[in-house]
Design a protein that fits this description.
The chain is of the alpha+beta class. The chain is built from 9 helices and 9 strands. It has a 5-stranded antiparallel sheet. The chain is globular, with a radius of gyration of 24 Å. It starts with a helix and ends with a helix.
């Protein structure tokens, strides 16, 4: 392909993107057709969208995984889609307030709490969806499992109040933030992309010392995410070293002592 063909193709793709159109391959269409057969697919889309997708993909070949993947014994799969997801996503994007009725661990129920939904998160460990929301009466950030939420109702709110709540949320998040610096051991500089990928879900800054030839990754994360950060550091092993962050240092030292105590010859 010569330069003019590349420019022409780029112009076509740019115009398609501007019009809200994007292209997919035949393999992607076959994969989507297979995913629509999942039990949760019907709940993930509105009936109109679900039927439209099925009609569009009717003539596509099925993406058969039976001869490619052999599934062994596993634990029972929890619901990967929750009925509240679609409505909550719309409320978060439109910055709407809600009246939330939810249960806590001891099965107490709190009804019609004035709330402002902030973020949806999916835990790969617990296989559950969580909603992070702002409690308008207590002015605090809360987290609830979607399976514990019994009802959601729209609550009118002014634009000025939305701005105030957004500012409060940012202040609360800043108070909960922690910082740590992880140094890449020089012998593993060529694996920098792999190391950065391990920290891809965290806010980070990368600095390079030209004199010493060392990379330093400064991480920013919430205090309840420290154990997850530790799991990533343990996964990277001898490639990295924590140089800033007392809590992470002490936990890594504790991990090292336990490992030595278990494997050190008697």
């Amino acid at each position: 392909m010569n330069l003019f063909e590349k420019i022409f193709n780029y112009q076509i793709i740019a115009q398609l993107e501007d019009s809200g159109t994007f292209m997919i391959t035949s393999q992607e269409r076959s994969w989507l057709k297979a995913m629509l057969q999942h039990p949760s697919a019907a709940a993930a889309f509105t009936p109109v969208t679900f039927n439209k997708l099925q009609a569009i993909l009717d003539g596509e070949p099925s993406f058969d995984l039976s001869g490619v993947i052999t599934e062994k014994a596993r634990s029972m799969e929890k619901q990967v889609y929750h009925p509240h997801l679609r409505s909550l996503r719309r409320m978060i994007s439109s910055q709407s307030a809600i009246q939330l009725t939810y249960r806590v661990k001891d099965d107490r129920t709190f009804s019609n709490e004035m709330s402002f939904p902030y973020k949806l998160e999916y835990s790969l460990v617990k296989k559950e969806w969580y909603l992070t929301w702002y409690h308008m009466r207590h002015r605090a950030l809360m987290s609830s499992k979607l399976q514990k939420i019994e009802s959601i109702r729209h609550l009118p709110i002014s634009a000025e109040r939305v701005i105030e709540i957004s500012q409060d949320i940012q202040k609360l998040l800043q108070k909960r933030q922690q910082h740590a610096s992880v140094e890449v051991v020089q012998a593993y500089n060529r694996e920098l992309s792999r190391i950065l990928y391990a920290f891809s879900c965290f806010e980070k800054q990368v600095e390079y010392d030209e004199v010493q030839g060392k990379y330093t990754v400064r991480l920013t994360f919430l205090n309840n995410e420290s154990e997850y950060v530790l799991s990533k550091i343990r996964f990277l092993g001898k490639r990295v070293r924590v140089i800033e962050g007392d809590h992470l240092k002490s936990r890594m030292l504790e991990t090292t002592k336990k490992a030595l105590g278990r494997y050190e010859p008697s």
